[in-house]
Each structure stands twice: as structure tokens, then as C-alpha cells.
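Practice problem. Given the sequence and the SMILES for coenzyme A, write out the predicted structure.
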Amino acid sequence: MSGDLQDVQFFVMTPGDYEDTETLLNNHFFRRNPLSVAAKQLSVESFSPQLVVDIKKCLASGVSIGARANGAKTLAGVFLNSSLSVDEISTKYTVNLDTSCIVYRVLEMLSTGEQVFNDMKVQRVLDLFTLCVHEDFERRGLARTLLEKSLLLAKEQGHQAACVQTTNSITEKICVPLGFHTVKSLDLTTVSDDLGIDLSLLGGTRLVKAMIKLL
Ligand SMILES: CC(C)(COP(=O)(O)OP(=O)(O)OC[C@H]1O[C@@H](n2cnc3c(N)ncnc32)[C@H](O)[C@@H]1OP(=O)(O)O)[C@@H](O)C(=O)NCCC(=O)NCCS
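Answer key:
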């Protein structure tokens, strides 16, 4: 349910927000995200070094939105995004793929080729990379608002489509009413043995999806 968000301020993130972002993810992302839990990757350090590179790229992109609690330094939530050409979208997870990182391997399996964007005559895409809301601010519509603001900003900057890979069914619940549709899905039960995903820790999110929306 959407709630009162007057105690937070939204802003476009910059590279100076890296430390706060890492703290938020370490405290509020990994142990609540079903895939990270099932892959036993519970901190930025336990991920691929590529994650730090990707977070920094998002912060430098000018299309990542943060929310800070009024009067405090604490980040209440982030949507870390980057701006990609269609060529970059199709190679994002094949170039520099860290095969020891289970989550990145799943994202690589879910990545969409450029054809789907070429068919829609799209050239610049908002890549919605990491969504996280601090537990003290959850279930007040903050994630939905971060997504809406990301889409608005990206459209203003000339992006023609947005894409997201949902590793938590809550994200799908937020994206569908905003017009996202599924272009690819992966049943994690079919790759769990191969990748080392502990299905008993996965919770309800067995189907991960690549979703897109025209802006
Ligand atoms: C997923 C996450 C970002 C949601 O943030 P949030 O600010 O609490 O979400 P919102 O308040 O905008 O809720 C959006 C919808 O999801 C539902 N929802 C949120 N948390 C939920 C939960 N734990 N269980 C079930 N539904 C939930 C809300 O009820 C709302 O639906 P409604 O409007 O029909 O009631 C947050 O739980 C989180 O950071 N999780 C860990 C990291 C993660 O998995 N990120 C997503 C990766 S794809």
C-alpha cells in the first residue's frame, strides 16, 4: 500500500553516494533478496568484483534515483540504473562475466538480445539494475515511487525503453501495473543444481524474469 513519503527526499545519485549505497545494500538487500539468499551471496564483497564496477557505473550515469530520510544521512532507498545502447544491452553480461558469481550467471541467462529492442526501434535503454528499500521504510510505496521517478527521468533524457530483471516477485508486482511485460523468464529449479542455488532458501521467487516497457 502506498503511504506518506514526506519524510524522504528524492535525488539523482552521483559517484559520491557509493559508500552509503554499499552500506544500504549490505544491510538491506542481500539477506532479503531471494536469489542472493539462495545463492548465499550476502554482501557486496561476496559478490563478483564486477558488482562494484556496475554500482559505480550506475551512480555516474545520471539516471539513478535515491531517497534520503529528511535530516539524516541514511539512504531510505535506491534504484541504481544505467543508460545503455542496444549494443551494450546485449553484451552487458557476456563481456566480463564472472562465472563464479551465481547471481551474475542467472542475470546472464536472463539477458535479452538486441533483437527485441531493434523490433521496437529503440536505441537507448534504461537498465534498471538494483532496487533496494531500507527495512524501516518498506511497504510505503517507496519502491514504486523510485521506479516511477526513474522512468520519468529516463524519458526526459531521451531513453525509449526500460528493462529490468526481477529476482524478487515483489518487483514484478510493482512493474506490471506500470506497463512492463515479460520478454524472457527462467525457472530457477531447472538450473539450481548446475549453478549451486539452494532451492530450500529461495522462498516464493522461482521464476525470474526479464521485463521491458516502452517509454
Ligand atoms: C522489493 C523491495 C524493493 C520493495 O520495497 P517497498 O518500498 O517495500 O515496496 P512498495 O512499498 O513500493 O510496495 C510495492 C508493492 O509490493 C508489495 N510488497 C512490498 N513488500 C512486500 C512483501 N514483503 N511481501 C509482499 N508484498 C510486498 C506492496 O504491498 C505493494 O503492493 P500493493 O500496492 O498492491 O500493496 C524491498 O522489499 C527490498 O528492498 N527487498 C530486498 C531487495 C530486493 O529483493 N530488491 C528487488 C530486486 S529485483
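Check your answer against the key. Residues 142-156 form the longest helix (15 residues).
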